[in-house]
Write a structure and sequence with these properties.
Blueprint lengths: L9 H9 L7 H11 L4 E4 L6 H12 L13 E4 L3 H15 L8 E4 L6 H5 L6 E4 L1 H9 L10 E4 L2 H6 L3 H8 L7 E6 L4 H10 L4 E4 L4 H6 E7 L5 H11 L5 E4 L3 H13 L4 E4 L5 H12 L5 E4 L1 H4 L9 E4 L6 H9 L8 E7 L4 H11 L4 E4 L9
Parallel strand pairs: 1-6, 1-7, 2-4, 2-5, 3-4, 5-6, 8-13, 8-14, 9-11, 9-12, 10-11, 12-13
Helix pairs in contact: 2-3, 3-4, 6-8, 15-16
The chain binds adenosine monophosphate.
């Protein structure tokens, strides 16, 4: 099936071809025709499923002329939990908006950076992507109005709630016009997400994209048993031996992320750590440089894992195992995304063995285990 049968305009179809999007992903196949008909949607799908384009394409397709736009009155509001996601979503809007015959101005706003440029940049914006806190600040200073939007999108609603944005979200909902289209996306359907669905959505089409079994099948998983004190040399040994590039390393704390990255650098492997204790600017800069291949190894904690959208990530290394099997699948999942196979490597200390057995049982997949004791790690 191609995109042509979904009802999108020739402008968007042309842009899809330019971006090498040849076939719609399942969520796109289901959501695009429904959103084009202005219906509400509840999409249960995780990052990596193609959910962003599933709402960006029909929203752009349906966008009314911006010529009559009242200044600072946006038409589309996308609420997201993090700055990283705000920037990614803006990127997707910009990529496809370029194809439209009329210029469409989009903007991403988020906290942690100066508010003034965001206030000044709001002129003529029709599509606004925002984290809740910063949106309220800008609204309260009359820099933007959301009282006349046509479409509201809540992206990663579960994460927004987990991050404690509930109160801000309620304040935002109270400012919206009664008549509008609502699109709610979430990786999970929790009680809180159900509540938002009840509150906001009007007879929505529910689209649930099951996590595909073969996502896991695509990934080559291997585990190395290793003593805690030998993890550093093993990491360097593997990176050097197979000349690994674009490696995402997971650890369990910000402190550990810094120390692992520093050790790699001291041993001549270009590595950077990124975690919740770093500034917003530093986080997005590291991510950008990692994505473009300028950083060889990015060492991170689970906090940032979800927002990282990289089409092809060949290597994920669990330097430390996550506590929950769900997080394990989440971490390694990104190596098998967008139809690209990848390799997920886990370091297993004697203390981890029992926990790793549980992870494998939950995942319903046995992982090949190799003893690293015989590796010649001299010089690593
Ligand atoms: P998302 O779940 O929206 O974060 O998308 C995951 C990745 O898949 C992004 O890098 C998109 O550029 C890519 N993508 C989304 N839809 C398609 C498609 N139909 N064909 C090829 N790549 C796609």
């Amino acid at each position: 099936m191609s995109f042509t049968s979904l009802g999108l305009s020739p402008f968007i179809l042309k842009a899809l071809a330019l971006e090498n999007y040849s076939q719609p992903y399942p969520i796109q196949k289901e959501a695009i025709p429904v959103i084009l008909k202005n219906k509400d949607v509840l999409g249960i799908a995780k990052t990596g499923s193609g959910k962003t384009a599933s709402y960006v394409l029909p929203i752009l397709n349906n966008l009314k002329s911006t010529k009559t736009l009242k200044n600072r009155h946006v038409k589309v509001l996308v609420l997201v939990p993090t700055r990283e996601l705000a920037m990614q979503v803006e990127d997707v809007f910009n990529t496809f908006a370029l194809a439209l015959p009329e210029r469409v101005k989009t903007m991403a706003i988020f906290g942690g950076v100066s508010i003034n440029p965001q206030m000044m940049g709001m002129n003529g914006v029709s599509i606004l992507i925002a984290t809740p806190g910063r949106l309220i600040e800008l609204e309260e200073s009359n820099a933007v109005s959301i009282s006349e939007i046509d479409t509201l999108v809540l992206d990663e609603a579960d994460k927004m709630l987990n991050l404690g944005f509930k109160e801000e979200m309620d304040r935002i909902f109270a400012l919206l016009p009664k008549k509008r289209q609502n699109l709610l996306f979430s990786a999970t359907l929790s009680k809180e997400v159900e509540n938002i669905k009840e509150l906001l959505l009007n007879n929505p089409e529910v689209i649930k994209i099951e996590e595909r079994e073969d996502d896991i099948e695509l990934i080559d998983q291997i585990a190395y048993t290793v003593e805690e004190s030998r993890k550093g040399p093993l990491l360097r040994y593997l990176i050097k031996k197979d000349n690994l590039k674009q490696v995402l390393v997971f650890v369990s704390s910000a402190f550990k992320a810094d120390s692992v990255a520093n050790k790699l650098c001291r041993n001549g492997i270009h590595a950077v750590s990124t975690h919740g204790k770093k500034s917003m600017n530093s986080r997005s800069e590291s991510l950008r440089r990692f994505k473009t291949g300028k950083i060889r190894v990015l060492v991170t904690t689970d906090l940032l894992a979800r927002g990282i959208d990289i089409e092809f990530l060949p290597y994920v290394i669990n330097y430390e195992l996550p506590r929950s099997p769900k997080d394990y699948v989440h971490r390694i999942g990104r190596t098998g995304r967008a139809e690209s196979p990848g390799e997920a490597i886990s370091f297993i200390t004697p203390e981890d063995e029992h926990h790793f057995k549980i992870i494998q049982k939950k995942m319903k997949k046995e992982v090949r285990v190799v003893d690293s004791a015989d590796f010649d790690m001299q010089g690593c």
